Amino acid sequence: MQIKNLSFIICLPLLLLGCSSLKTPQSPSQKFNKIAIAEDIYINLVDIFPLPFKGVYLQQLTSTFANQKHQFSVHLTLDPTSFKAVAFNDIVGQLYTLTWTQETLDWTASSFIPKHIKPHRILADFLMAHLPLKKLQKHLKGAIVTEKNSTRFIRKKNILVREITYATHPQKTLGENVTLKNPNLSYQLEIKTVDLP
Which of 119, 109, 108, 97 is nearest to 45 (CA)? Predict the structure, then answer.
């Protein structure tokens, strides 16, 4: 899968939280072997590197949660050995910086960000949306990934965990629009991504 759209997830309530751009570390550097998705569902991170991503991108995102829409941007720098995202908007300024490598995960965020906004949740939805199908099937435990036309479904038995719709088929070059839905939290995220030089 080539990455033209790289979704950044679970940032729903961040956008109207305050006007401070001060940053405070939310967690120390840490290393972990899995990311929880839901009860008994997780992504196994053992041997997940090298990552199949490379490039610099700017995303414009619109989240819908509890009938409220919020907009923000994310600057992504990706390569096979590291993942870095800087999120920001016009109200708060810089929202957070997330850096993930095979050795550590570093997370620095505005003091206004709620404690339930965790870096592993952001990474989880990113990987579910953008890992190639076979790699995701290998590393996702407790759920099944299928694709039909331009939509990827992640289910545990008959329960839909995520639904991700692409502008084009996810195994081809992605278009500039991706929509991710989490029915358990009733949120939707629309992503428009451009490549940066």
Answer: 119
Radius of gyration (C-alpha) of the chain in whole angstroms: 16
Measured between its terminal Cα atoms, the distance across the chain in Å is 20
* HEC letters along 1-18: CCCCCCCCCCCHHHHHCC
Cα–Cα distance measured from residue 69 to residue 66, given in angstroms and rounded to the nearest whole number: 8
Query: Is 130 or 15 the better-scoring residue by pLDDT?
Result: 130
Q: Residue 190, SS3? A: strand
Instruction: Enumerate domains of the chain plus CATH numbers.
Output: 12-195 (2.50.20)
Q: Look up residue 49 and give its DSSP letter.
A: P
The CA dihedral of 92, 115, 75, 185, to the nearest 10 degrees, is -110
Cβ within 8 Å of residue 39, ≥6 positions away: none
Of 93, 97, 100, nearest to 35 by C-alpha is 100
Band of pLDDT at residue 10, cut at 50, 70 and 90: very low
